[in-house]
Amino acid sequence: MVDTVVVETEASPTSAVSWPAVIAGGIVAAAFTLLLLALGTGLGFTVASPWHGTPDITTTKAATVAGIYMAATAVIASALGGYISGRLRTRWLATPGDEVFFRDTAHGLLSWALATVMGAAFLATAATAVSGGVAAGASQAAAQQAPFAGPLLDRLYRPNYAALTGGTGQAAAGVFAAGRDLAADREVADRMLFAGRTPRGELTADDRQYLVQMVVARTGLAPADAERRVASVEADARAAAETARQIGMRLAFWLVASMFLGALAASLAAIEGGMLRDRRS
Fold it and tell me: What pLDDT is recorded for position 80?
């Protein structure tokens, strides 16, 4: 009687992830993303950085164009990084085909994730400078102010020089300016127009009257003309705020779409790269 002993050969403890290939693919994808952002700025798309900064975009159409270019950038750069990671990964001998397929997909996804994290951690400043975002050293007050507030405040306090050449307009403006700086009045108007509105986006009656008085004193306009100017600036401020909200929504949508498309492109390209690495058809 002979006893038969079955000896199972354990798999090698080596990790199935080829980290050098993943890191190489991630670096290539991140660098190529920065290159394409610079190219887009040169072509006039004024694209935003996917990781940081405020884009110089003033219309919803421009936001859509920038979003499409952002998605195309993500697909191209991620596909290149995924292909590199799949082509350079270690060859898995005697591994079932479905397992190889899964590992190649995972390698592409890992290279995309690494490029995204690297971009968020290290490329924010460079990408923002290239893509026309807000400078990192901007003051906090300027960063908090709406990008469209400056021109509207300039228009609000534009003086009537014909009235200020003499008479009561000159006297009122001189007395008011002597005790209060124009910058302080601009800050007050900024808070009223862009931060202190009612839920419907309108000024309260007291705020509107106070703003009209400031405009009369600063510009020399007649009260009726000052009321019309305040009403016009208020309406434009509401429209600009709504446009900015729409732009933010569209850019957020395209950012999410570009990330999904980038992950898919990296995974598919890694599969192709792995097939060529193994000479599989």
Answer: 97
- Chain centroid, CA 233 distance in Å: 27
The two tokens of residue 118 are 């690297």
CA 151 to chain centre: 22
| Cα 192 from chain centroid (whole Å) | 27
Q: Is residue 5 part of a domain?
A: no
pLDDT at position 218: 84
How is the chain split among helix, strand and coil, in percent rounded to 5? 70, 0, 30
Mean pLDDT by 10 residues, the chain (281 residues): 49 74 95 89 66 59 88 95 93 86 94 90 52 39 56 84 57 49 83 68 84 87 91 88 87 92 96 87 54
Q: How far is CA 99 from CA 48, 94, 102, in A?
A: 38, 10, 5
Q: Nearest 5 degrees, angle CA 116-CA 118-CA 121?
A: 110
Torsion angle of alpha carbons 33, 39, 44, 45, nearest 10°?
Answer: -20
Do 172 and 160 lie in a common domain? Answer: yes
CA distance 40 to 23: 26
Q: What is the pTM of this model?
A: 0.70
Q: Are residues 130 and 154 in the same domain?
A: no
Contact assessment for residue 90 and residue 163, using Cβ atoms and an 8 Å cutoff = no
